[in-house]
UniProtKB/TrEMBL annotation:
Assembly behavior: Homodimer. Forms a membrane-associated complex with FtsX.
Short name of one Pfam family: ABC_tran
Annotated gene: ftsE
UniProt source species: Terrabacter tumescens
Name this polypeptide is given: Cell division ATP-binding protein FtsE
Organism ancestry: Bacteria, Bacillati, Actinomycetota, Actinomycetes, Micrococcales
Principal location listed in the UniProt entry: membrane
Top-rank taxon: Bacteria
Keyword Repeat: no
Cited SUPFAM superfamilies: P-loop containing nucleoside triphosphate hydrolases
Function: Part of the ABC transporter FtsEX involved in cellular division.
Keyword Cell membrane assigned: yes
Length: 311
């Protein structure tokens, strides 16, 4: 669902690339952490997925769209498929919790009936039922972040990007936020979370993609956030087949047909005028469940980190 092929991003008037020849594939329905020290390129990676920045070299596919070839007029439709959560919440300070979340649907032209139904459902999902009338300053940081997640998820986007969503929160609250993202992931939404948060990364045991000065240095299933010196790695491409018990999910990469993701015009975007209403999402309980069925694409390339020496 998200594919980077030899992607380099060099900002104007800089010499060192913010991302340097990055190859990456995040299949539909995956939860992936992107870790690395400050300046390693995490936010740049997120911005490239959103097409807030353009790659200097390489190819990026997101939800079936080749971003280099995506005309400007189709960028809003791309962004409707991507919910975003940030460290600083970015709530509208003079609007209530309900209004903050409803606003995301209003700008998509959703009907009042849909807003009246979907916003309370979503607030309940994120654990904020009963807080609809509060203003952001009447909420804790964790609650504000839950509002931001509700706003990002209210139109049920297939992709959720979270850039340091726990950066302003204490460890317990952070874990609750990541568990909420995990819960959203289990509805089928791909979640990519950039973070420095060692504790939550280690607690979740998800895929961990590590950047170091723009270079993808390791990519591990059920990884942890190794602190201290970053091992030098050799990236080894491998092809791994779909696990025997994984469901067949049309992925668009299986047959190389990006049109499988291309929902075409904005009218088909979730929440857009004329779009069929989404069925309500049944959320599994919060908590880890290793046996939970995971939507996963078919054949995919994975970079396997092989430690060659310590620095
Ligand atoms: N708009 C920009 N113009 C020039 N250089 C930039 C710009 N944005 C980021 N950079 C540079 O690109 C590199 C990667 O920055 P980026 O913000 O992606 O890192 P990060 O891992 O998200 O860092 P942090 O954890 O501090 O947010 C840094 O060297 C940064 O200075």
């Amino acid at each position: 669902m998200i594919l980077f092929e030899n992607v380099t991003k060099t900002y104007p008037r800089t010499t060192r690339p913010a991302l340097d020849d990055v190859n990456l594939e995040i299949p539909r329905g995956e939860f992936a952490f992107v870790v690395g020290t400050s300046g390693s390129g995490k936010s740049t990676l997120m911005q490239l997925v959103m097409k807030e920045q353009d790659a200097t070299r390489g190819r990026i596919l997101v939800a079936g769209r080749d971003l280099d070839r995506l005309p400007e007029r189709k960028v809003p439709a791309l962004r409707r498929e991507i919910g975003c959560v940030f460290q600083d919440f970015r709530l509208l300070p003079n609007k209530t919790v309900f209004q903050n979340v409803a606003y995301a649907l209003q700008v998509l032209g959703s009907s009042r009936a849909r807003i009246r139904q979907t916003v309370p459902e979503t607030l309940e999902l994120v654990g904020l039922a009963g807080m609809e009338k509060r203003l952001p300053h009447q909420l804790s940081g964790g609650e504000q972040q839950r509002v931001a997640i509700a706003r990002a998820f209210v139109n049920r986007p297939p992709i959720l990007l979270a850039d340091e969503p726990t950066g302003n929160l204490d460890p317990d609250t952070s874990l609750g936020i990541v568990q909420l993202l995990d819960r959203i992931n289990r509805t089928g939404t791909t979640v990519v979370m950039a973070t420095h948060d060692t504790v939550t990364v280690n607690a979740m045991r998800k895929r961990v993609i590590r950047l170091d000065r723009g270079v993808l240095v390791s990519d591990m299933e059920a990884g942890d956030y190794t602190t201290g010196s970053i091992p030098r790695v050799r990236l080894e491409e491998e092809t791994s087949a779909r696990p025997a018990d994984a469901p067949e999910v049309p992925d668009g990469y299986d047959d190389g047909d990006p049109a499988a993701y291309d929902h075409g015009d904005a009218a088909q975007a979730p929440g857009a005028p004329g779009a069929p209403d989404e069925p309500s999402v049944t959320m599994p309980p919060i908590g880890r469940d290793e046996d939970a069925p995971r939507a996963r694409g078919g054949i995919f390339r994975r970079h396997k980190a092989v430690q060659t020496s310590d620095r």
